[in-house]
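Need tokens for this chain, all 306 residues.
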Amino acid sequence: MLVPVLVGPTGSGKTAVATALGALLPLEAVSADSRQVYRGLVVGTAAPAGDDLASVPYHGVGFLDPRERYSAGRFGRDAAAWIAQIAARGRTPLVVGGTGFYLRALFEGLFEEPDLGGPRRERLRAWLRSLPPAEAVRWARRLDPRFAGGGAQRAQRALEVALLSGRPLGRLQAEAAWGPTGLRPWYALLTLDRAALRERIGARTRAMLAGGWVAEVRATLAAGVPPDAPGLSAVGYREIVAHLGGAPGGPELEAAIVAATVRYAKRQETWFRHQLRGPVTRLDALAPAPALARLVAAGYRAAAEE
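Here are the structure tokens for all 306 residues:
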């Protein structure tokens, strides 16, 4: 089964294109965004809402407690089930998102995680959170020759698996024991130059802050979610948690979020450039969303008929 996949760095306009595509194809979308899974975190994750959801129903958005971890392997299994259900209804499943490892899990499979224990794992996680990010990355590279980077959170994950299982995460992933069969991706990749991407990220960050992002984080913390919960570890949320703990707000907060988001977008672009396996149609994200949707629909239909 050929599955259309709309990908691009954060801020490239994926949701707008998906919404426009809903007028051309009988779609249901599967979100491949590792932060949109969390309940109550709508503003800062740019989760689809309102007219977007009215045009295209989404799966994988806002269903998980922010205190809970959600792995790429679990997404792969969930997304495969959602896609099968959508196809059974005679509709077209569209995968939308920018989390590369989610896409890999869905279309290529990941390893079945070994039992890493309970209290021992929690003690290790507490220690790993105390490590400076650079130190975590250095140890991850020493313990896992296949570690490809991606920041402190991925480094902590690599260390956790290596120390508790005795085997490097990269080797376990290379020996993937499961993977959905019969799903083939057709990628539509939204691209734009760095200057334009930074401008979009800046404008979106200002809109999110004006739209209640800080209040969203404050309410989440007030509901008992700890500051280091998985749902609050995303870009932007970390900076706002620090601000609520005493770090500067205003222009300094905005600048910190924009800088962190631009760095994240660069990592996404690198991943898409080297890791997408399958047909890739590159599209200029500066074009209007309806025009891009028409190109996606035409390209996917042509590929499906081959």
